[in-house]
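Hey, can you fold this one?
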Amino acid sequence: MSVGSEVYTADGKLIGQYYKENRSPVELKNISPNLINALVATEDVRFYKHHGVDFYSFFTSMLSTAKGERRGGSTITQQLAKNLFETRKRKSQGIIKRIPVIRTIVYKCKEWLTAFKIEHVYNKQQILTLYFNTVPFGNNSFGIKTASLKYFNKTPDKVSPAEAALLIGMLKATSSYNPIKNPERALERRNTVLGQMQKYNYLTKTGYDTSARSPLKLDLSYVEEDSHGDSYIRRAVEKWLDKWCKENDYNLYEDGLKIYTTIDSRLQRYAEEAVAEKMKMLQKRFNNLWGNKNPWRDSKGVEIKDFLLKNEQRLPIYKLLDKKYKGDTTQIQQYFKTKKRMTVFTWKGEQDTTFSTIDSIRYYARILNTGMMTLEPSTGKIKVWIGGIDHRFFNYDHVNQARRQAGSTFKPFAYLTALDNGYTPCDKFTDKPVTIKYKDNGKDEVWQPNNADFNFSYREMSLRWAMGKSVNSITAQLTEKVGWDKIVEYAHKCGIESPLKSVPSVSLGSNDVSVYEMVRAYSTFLNKGEKLDPILVTKITDQQGNVLEEFKSKSERVISEETAWLMLYMFRGGMEEPGGTSQALWEYPGLWKKDNQIGGKTGTSSDYVDGWYMGITKNLVTGIWVGADDRSVHFTTSETGEGSHTALPIFGSFMEKVYADPKSGYTYGAFPKPWVKITKEYNCPSPRIVVDTTSTDSTSTPVDTTGVLPAPVTTTPENPENTPPGQ
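Sure. Predicted structure:
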């Protein structure tokens, strides 16, 4: 049998395995005679008469092939030998794999010899048992038990002649005769098998007629409960190694590899704890906000009436029902309204309940999710990967699969473009209304972005202050000065690979990007201006420990060391500048020992749909996104839904846990000192804002006094960034 592969953390902890997880063994007594009869009638009618190789069938198949009627001559025992030992795989063929005719003769001889040995050791019943437990049925189903459950939600002993014929018919070509993808071809093949069963007296004429007239009657409601250590990391590693496996002819599920990842088990655990702690609170806040009201709303706050229907129509089963009931919506809706037992995710643990499909859609649409990744830029190693709140219920990976509007976390690329093209952190702009005229696909457009509080202070501010306070109006002015095409160019330079629409609002995060891309791009600044190619796997060995491949991160210089250091200084502004949007981190005292420094950027998309936080320490970059999977479901106010209140707390809690563990390897400390001589002016303290609280006049004007702002200070709302043109 094939040997599965194992996945380890960087510190040697087993975190997952790859093996043919859907192979669920079953004894012959629990396999319906219909399946045995269908198999023998179709694949090896002389099965009970030969001793592993049927030379009569072999030579007749050769004659048929010569006449243009391609027909296989392998016995069930030969097929078992092929399934067990993969005699036709390139690695099993040695040097003769390059010689076409000889190659075929050799693997045929191997199969014959193995088949004779199998027949010598096992009786016919045992061979059938082995065969049914090893044969692949497509859709990652191995063995008859898994296949019958997957396609009919039945155990193998309950399978009818028609169902048995469908399953056995698939063995000829699991993809071509897949009843889900190719129902017409599967039906035709099923009836061919039924014809074979009648021909060899395993089925009466009446039985054949009844079975051949019956529809496919698939039941796809069965869900495999045992995930065998499945996780977001395990899936990410599989995807990361996909190209390597193809190029080197390895199979993760069969070749017994040992895969050593970059994941740090301590940091991963602290991140998972922080996510569970904060997401539980956020979900409670969200539920309290909406109560019994439906949260799916359009941009004007009006409930989307067909929300549930559209989600029904996206389900794979909808097309089958539509075909079954010939478009009768009443019957389709009756199916979706039927109650059934199911297990659902809750923050108190899995709970059994009775839900209809509509109940389930309504329930899960309200669940908030997250994606989080931590990278060590000096090595390019990914230390933390959290694709969501629970892989058992939410398979979609929010680190590299999901792409969401970046909001203000994208603003730094505008400031980067400015710093790399003549500007300094001390250059000043005035916080005032902005009108930008531009063309989009040949059409004249006007963009007038608002600040978060819909007010303009008319105060002159340095670029560092403006980025730290996340001022939309100044970011927009800067975008007009340096050019939005240029900002797109710099974002791509740093590692953003998603397509970016080049419009003025690009700098306010109107485009969709992934957490992975954002962490990679931000790491450029801590990596002295070199763009990283992050790695998730450091080494692969075989079962004996022989190293098959080692991986190292690649980097490429994309900005100067001076600009990279100045950007780190700019990021500190979120904590140090008046009204800096990262200052909620002062609520985490465990972060601020031994003169520690942290930089970062919050982000919130329009209507508080997406909350982001990008956090930078002296040796780590962490990106976090929080939101509902459906963009029409979201918070409604800055106090509840902006990134500083959703994603930032996860970062704060995570880093507190990391710093509290002396064995984590990550300690307090200041950002790196300049790597090169800094030629641009950057040390320009912003005026401290003091509000006269003795006055009862709510319109009292803040007073400016000179001096560096000590932490902490009052935070101002950060911006729902991608304000539509004309707003």
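The mean pLDDT is 88. Let me know if you want another pass with a different chain boundary.
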